Every structure is written in C-alpha cells, then in structure tokens.
Amino acid sequence: MRRCFRTVTLVIMMFAGLAAAAPDVKLPPGTRKNDAGELVSTRGLRDTTDFLAKELARLGVAVTQIGPTRTRGVELVRFLSQVPTTPWLAIHVLRSNGKTVISFVPRTPS
After folding, report:
1. pTM strictly above 0.85
2. CA-to-CA separations, 31 to 9, 28, 72, 73, in angstroms, rounded
3. Rounded Cα distance, 78 and 82, in Å
4. What is the distance between the alpha carbons of residues 47 and 41, in angstroms, rounded to a whole number?
5. CA separation for the pair 41, 32 (Å, rounded)
6. How far apart, in whole angstroms, are the C-alpha atoms of residue 81 and residue 41?
7. How far apart are the first and last CA of the chain?
8. What are phi and psi for residue 20, nearest 5 degrees?
9. CA-to-CA distance for 108 and 110, rounded, in angstroms?
10. Do the Cβ atoms of 71 and 94 come closer than 8 Å?
11. pLDDT by residue (tens digit) across 86-106?
C-alpha cells in the first residue's frame, strides 16, 4: 500500500511538473503529448538526449548531465540546471518498453 502511494504521488508530481514548468527548450522533432499528457519523443534515448544537450548549449543554459543509467530495463538521463533563472530544475529523459518520455521538473519558488 505504501509503495503504491509513493508511485501515485510520483506520477502526480511528474504531471504537475509538466504543466508548471512550461518548457522553454525546443523539443526533438516529432515529440508529442500522448493521451496521458506525457511528452513522448519519436526518437530513441541517445538521439533525444543529444538533441536536448545541443539545444541547451545553443540557449547557453549550463546543465549537468547525469547518465545514461540503466536499471531493470529502464534507461534514464537527467539534465540538472545550473542556472537559477530556468523555470525547470531538471529535465528527465526516460526510456522504457520502447517509449522515450521527456519530463520537466519544476523549480520550486524559494
């Protein structure tokens, strides 16, 4: 029960983050929102992360890239913003079951 609650909370926070942290970053061509509201890239993990890394560099946004890491069939790359002016704290690119999902983690006001 506790694990289910944590999972549901994480999913709710992720979708809230998508709405609150409107991306100012250009997304890879073909990226669309699915019925669940997720940003789904038509590209693989590497192509998606390479595109985002180039776009962030073009915008002059300093980020720390963590990953890719693979755990139990799930691959994850994180871009952590080093600039306090971005509306997002991190960008997560997750690949699981052949689907690449991009999510923006909102920066909490301090």
Report:
1. no
2. 25, 6, 25, 22
3. 13
4. 10
5. 7
6. 21
7. 32
8. -75, -35
9. 6
10. no
11. 889 999 999 988 889 999 988
Question: In the numeric block, which tokens belong to residue 13?
Answer: 């926070």
User: In the sheet that 39-41 helps form, which strands lie side by side, from edge to edge?
Assistant: 32-33, 39-41, 99-106, 88-96, 74-81, 63-71
Residue the block writes with tokens 């139990």: 72
Question: What number of residues does the chain have?
Answer: 110
Per-residue tokens: 99: 């689907």
pLDDT tens across 23-64, in order? 578 889 988 988 888 888 888 899 999 999 999 999 888 999
Taking the C-alpha atoms of residue 94 and residue 11, their distance in angstroms, rounded to an integer, is: 13
Non-local (6+) Cβ contacts of 54 within 8 A are none
What does residue 99 show for φ and ψ, rounded to 5 degrees? -120, 130
Residue with tokens 């963590």: 66
Q: Which helix (H) or strand (E) holds 11?
A: helix 2-20
Q: Tokens representing 32?
A: 């669309």
| CA proximity to 99, closest of 42, 15, 48 | 42
